[in-house]
Design brief:
The chain has 442 residues and is α/β, with parallel strands linked by helices. The chain folds into two domains: 40-65 and 317-427, Alpha-Beta Complex (Aspartate Aminotransferase, domain 1); 69-311, Type I PLP-dependent aspartate aminotransferase-like (Major domain) (Aspartate Aminotransferase, domain 2). Helices cover 38% and strands 13% of the residues. It has 14 helices and twelve strands. It has helices at residues 16-23, 42-52, 69-80, 97-111, 126-138, 153-161, 180-185, 209-222, 263-266, 281-291, 300-311, 316-338, 363-374, 408-427; strands at 56-57, 121-125, 144-149, 165-170, 191-197, 225-229, 257-262, 274-279, 350-354, 376-377, 379-380, 399-403. The protein has a seven-stranded mixed beta sheet with strand order 2-8-7-6-5-3-4, sandwiched between helices. Helix 8 (209-222) links the parallel strand 5 and strand 6 (225-229). The structure holds pyridoxal-5'-phosphate. Residues 55-417 form the Aminotransferase class I/classII large domain.
Length: 442
């Protein structure tokens, strides 16, 4: 079995660009260590490979439908109708006041939070900028940053850019629940931050209030900062065992934690890049110190439309999760029949398949065969791990991430291709050995 493209320790590099790329597993493994080359993100590489092989793209997590028409019209109107306000010039650095007010009122309705719109809500250029600004604000050089693995790739890039070291605590299947004892055991005197993601990409795990509470206690005890990425807050499916609870609902969390949200994920407008960071006024003002020199501000017309969408979503969130759930069920059923033991996938856009019931090959090899010979693109979960510390045979190296935020015809065709071509394509690989016991997780 070949392991994922090994990536060097990011801190072995002097230049920030090389650290950032190694931290996000985007250094070309074929390039010499002395003159490394950067490759695009795993998502862009998967999309490019899907195009090159005319494969169906279940790799990149974007919906193949547009956001609701009324929301698109609000943004268009905001750009072209001067009477609706100066929507084509700089927005305030903290974001349009209309959007800050509606983020605050949405968090009050949904989570019972009381966030002051002027001091406790900051609009960012996508959740991505909120994540970057928060990590760069709190992860001092030489410190350690803890996260559960697998994790969203931008965390690793920013931690490395800050000159800090990422330390992973694996989420183990089939439940993928956070092991808070293991997290605690990983804390050292160098730890500066904990990065959380609930609902979690790619496992779909929704963290419980108890788990969040214990983590906040740890942060208080050790004087750590928490960045809790909650971009999938509106995408919890109806059969999830737990509702989404923001980290900020834990008593006293605002002293140590901020939450990050995304209009792109919430309204299926991922290209708009409107996100936000919420939390205690002091932490928000510290993060602002970084954020205002990243983008300063962006997309006032999009911000204006999102402000109205959050005030009244016109039933979109419920319709969207019902559609996602139907796609999830279709994909899970098909992956189960193929022997890929799908996880429960209770939230977000993704379902995980475990290749070990089908083949001895790694998920990296599996995904290459899948794209090139079967015509379906997916992402090996190892691309979302800290590769310079990864164990080649670890469970995380056998998992594949498939996106279900796609049209049903697309999912059905992907499953048909897999049913018809996958067994022969795997059998033709010299290193393939069939597993003796098919995985039967459901
Ligand atoms: C866990 C997670 N956080 C953040 C983001 C980025 O969000 P945005 O597009 O709002 O920058 C994504 C996008 O895929 C994600 O999956």
């Amino acid at each position: 079995m070949s392991s994922p493209s090994p990536q060097p320790d990011p801190l072995a590099f002097e230049k920030p660009w090389a650290r950032s790329a190694a931290g996000a597993n985007t250094l070309d493994p074929e390039s010499p260590r002395s003159s490394p080359r950067v490759v695009p993100t795993i998502y862009e590489r998967t999309t490019a490979s899907a195009l090159a092989h005319q494969a169906i793209n279940l790799g990149q997590g974007f919906p193949d439908t547009e956001g609701p028409d009324w929301l698109l019209e609000l943004a268009a109107q905001s750009i072209t109708d001067p009477s609706s306000g100066p929507r084509n010039q700089y927005a305030p650095g903290m974001g349009l006041s209309e959007l800050r007010a509606s983020i605050s009122s949405a968090q009050r309705r949904r989570q019972g939070l009381d966030l002051h719109p002027e001091t406790q809500v900051m609009v960012t250029t996508g959740a991505t900028e909120g994540i970057s600004a928060t990590i760069l604000a709190f992860a001092q050089p030489g410190s350690e940053v803890l996260t559960f693995e697998p994790h969203y790739d931008s965390y690793g890039a920013c931690v490395a850019l800050a000159g800090a070291r990422m330390v992973g605590v694996p989420l183990r299947g089939p439940e993928f629940r956070p092991d808070v004892d293991a997290l605690e055991a990983a804390i050292t005197e160098r730890t500066s931050m904990i990065l959380l993601n609930t609902p979690h990409n790619p496992t779909g795990t929704v963290f419980s209030t108890e788990e969040l509470g214990r983590i906040v206690e740890l942060a208080k005890k050790h004087d750590l900062r928490i960045m809790c990425d909650e971009v999938y807050e509106h995408l919890v499916l109806s059969d999830a065992a737990l509702p989404h609870r923001s980290i900020l609902t834990v008593e006293g969390a605002e002293q140590v934690a901020v939450a990050v949200g995304s209009a792109g994920k919430s309204f299926s407008v991922t290209g708009w890049k409107v996100g936000w960071v919420t939390g205690g006024a002091e932490l928000i003002s510290q993060i602002r110190g970084v954020k205002q020199f990243l983008s300063f501000s962006s997309g006032p017309a999009f911000q204006w439309a999102v402000a109205q969408g959050l005030e009244d979503d016109r039933g979109f969130f419920a319709r969207n999760t019902a559609e996602l759930e139907a796609g999830r069920d279709l994909l899970r059923e098909g992956l189960h029949d193929l022997g890929l033991a799908p996880n429960a996938a209770e939230a977000g856009y993704f379902v995980l398949g475990d290749v070990s019931g089908l083949t001895s090959l790694s998920a990296v090899d599996f995904c290459r065969i899948l794209a090139e010979e079967v015509g379906v693109a997916a992402i090996p979960v190892s691309a979302l791990t800290i590769q310079h510390t990864a164990q080649p045979m670890d469970e995380l190296q056998r998992l594949v991430r498939f996106a279900f935020c796609k049209d049903h015809t697309t999912i059905t065709e992907a499953l048909r291709r897999m049913r018809e071509h996958l067994p022969a394509a795997l059998a033709a690989h010299p290193a393939h050995e069939r597993a003796s016991e098919p995985a039967a997780r459901r």
